[in-house]
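fyi for ur records
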Amino acid sequence: MLRFKHLFVTIGAVIFCILSASAQPRDSKRFAAIESEKIAYITKELNLTPAEAQRFFPIYNQYSKDVWTIRSQKKENTESPSPRGVNSFNRSDRSKKRDVLSYDAKELEIKKEYRKKFAEVIGSARASQFFEVEQSFRELLYKELQRRNR
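which gave:
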């Protein structure tokens, strides 16, 4: 019965993710498949009940969007500078654009904000565990990518 419950939650979460991902501009079949796997992994690792998953994943989707935005801004503004003499920016403009720590601080603030929101749904312990689970999924994804590239 418990397995059926987890299977039901996972399938529901995957369907929810696919439907919500289709409205996002960055979606593709590959991205949707990875995001579906991520949702299933999070559901399993955090041991979310169907009711918790239903309340958790809309918050998670907003969190994901906010973090994606900050990381995109960071990437855009920390591109490699042009060779010496070619860049028209003065040194202070470049240092403002390349201030990686300010983007990291913004990302940390987002995580703190969403940890509180997650805690309202799944409790403090699992809300903190979420970030470990998310990192663990990234590591699994990276290892799989490396394995496929061999």
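Residues 85-89 have pLDDT under 50 and may be disordered. thats all i got for now
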